[in-house]
Amino acid sequence: MPTIDPRVDEYIANSAEFAQPILAHLRGVIHAACPEVKETIKWSMPNFEHHGLLCNFASFKQHCAFGFWKGELLLAGEDDKGKEAMGQFGRITSVQDLPSKKVLTAYIKKAMKLNEEGVKVARPKAAPRELLVPDYFIAALEGNPAAYEVFNGFSTSAKRDYCDWLTEATRNKRMAQAVEWIAEGKKRHWKYESC
Q1: Tell me: the pLDDT tens digits for 52-96?
Q2: Where in the sequence is the domain holding 170, given as residue range(s)?
Q3: Where is the signal peptide (predicted)?
Q4: Which of 41, 136, 148, 180 has its CA 20 to 30 A from that of 83?
Q5: What pTM does this model have?
Q6: What is the DSSP code string of 141-159?
Q7: In this structure, are 112 and 177 located in the same domain?
Q8: 37 HSE (CA, 13 A, CB side)
Q9: What is the number of other CB atoms lying within 10 angstroms of the CB of residue 91?
Q10: Beta strands in the chain (DSSP E)
Q11: 126, part of any domain
């Protein structure tokens, strides 16, 4: 038995007039393909769950979007219009922009099977940003040997916090504050650390 969320009804009703038949069609296909699907609202848009996130849709001023949580596994090697808009089907302005009901149903069934089997999408880890300590900051730290020693003992992320903070705004004021805190052995967000 499907789990209907009245917030999805409200979302569809509050969408642009062109979007309402698109969203209603998608919702119907999803429920027909996966009768035990659970509706919810996440990230301010309707999401459908079956052993985890399955798919979602959204409406915008001039288009709709529809996508699968594991879309890269479902549509591998197929024409992915994901660069045009959110999801894998590009900018959807009418029901005709979607694959046929039969094709959508096959995608939904495949997505269900992936979730039931616990298949995970391998998400590439972002390469860590290079730590760039500005020359003027190094010079200021070298002027206070205690601060220089403590700074060099900080983790890369703690050092990066200070460098980002210095380069984002008023350099001289923040540099003086940074050197003072570092000399005291404090990390950039020391105020928020538990005692």
Answers
A1: 999 999 999 999 999 999 988 887 666 555 566 788 898 999 999
A2: 135-192
A3: none
A4: 41
A5: 0.63
A6: HHTSHHHHHHHHHS-HHHH
A7: no
A8: 27
A9: 15
A10: 38-42, 45-49, 53-59, 64-68
A11: no
